[in-house]
Amino acid sequence: MSVDEILAIEEEVKQLHHNPVQASHSFSRLDAKTTFTGFWNIHVKPVIEISKALAKKYNSPVSDSVWLAAIFHDIARLSDEEPHDEIGAERAKAFLNERGLDGQYVKQIILTHRCKKHRPETLEQKILATADAMAHFQQPFYLWYSHISNKSLSEQFKTMAAKMEWDYYVKIFWDSERDVVRSYYEALKRWVNGGEL
Ligand SMILES: [Fe+2]
C-alpha cells in the first residue's frame, strides 16, 4: 500500500473518533465527542507514531500492517464493546476487506495488543503491545483518564496502579523500551501509591 492510502485510512478512522456515532460511553462522564477526540489525540495517534518508529527500529518487513493495526487497535471502544481486542480485530479486518485489502494480518496484530487472552508472538504483535503501553507513560494519559472518568479518585488510583504494572512488565517486550519510560513509570507509581485520599 502507498503511504497516501494508509494516511487516507488514518484520516477516516480519526474522523470516526472526532465524530462518534454513539453519544456517551460507559467509562466517561463527558460526551463521546469530547472523550474520543481526546482519546485519539492523547492515545491513538501517539500509539501510531510509536508503532511506526518501533517497526523501523526492529526492521519489520510488514510495517504497513503495524501502522494499520495501530490505527484500528482501539476501534471497538468507540462502540463501547468488550473484549475490545477481539471485536476491534474483526472490525479492522472487515473495514480493510471492504476496501479490497487483506486485513488478516492486521487482525492478528490487534488481537494480542492487550496481552490478555491472546499473547503476542510475532514481532509486529510485540510492537503494538509495546507501543500501546509506552503511550500510556509518554503522554498525559492518566490525567486525561482522570478528567473523563466517572469513577471516584480512589477507584481510579486502583485502576491506574494495576494498569501501569501490567503495561510496564507485561506489555513492553524490550528492555530498551522499558528504559525509555522508566522515569514516567516510577513517578506515576509514587503518585498512585503515595497519595492519601
Ligand atoms: Fe490502546
CATH A-level architecture: Orthogonal Bundle
**Beta-strand percentage range:** under 5%
DSSP, total strands: 0
Instruction: Write the element-wise H/E pattern from the N-terminal end onward.
Output: HHHHHHHHH
Name the CATH superfamily assignment.
Hypothetical protein af1432
What do these coordinates show?
By secondary structure, this protein is mainly alpha-helical. The chain has one domain: Orthogonal Bundle (Hypothetical protein af1432). 70% of the residues lie in helices and 0% in strands. The mean pLDDT is 94. The site of fe (ii) ion has 5 residues, from helix 2.
Main attributes?
0% strand, 197 residues, mainly alpha, binds fe (ii) ion, globular, Hypothetical protein af1432
Present the secondary structure layout.
Elements: H1 3-18, H2 32-57, H3 63-72, H4 84-98, H5 104-111, H6 123-138, H7 141-148, H8 153-171, H9 175-194
Can you describe this structure in just a few lines?
The chain has 197 residues and is mainly alpha-helical. It is built from nine helices and no strands.
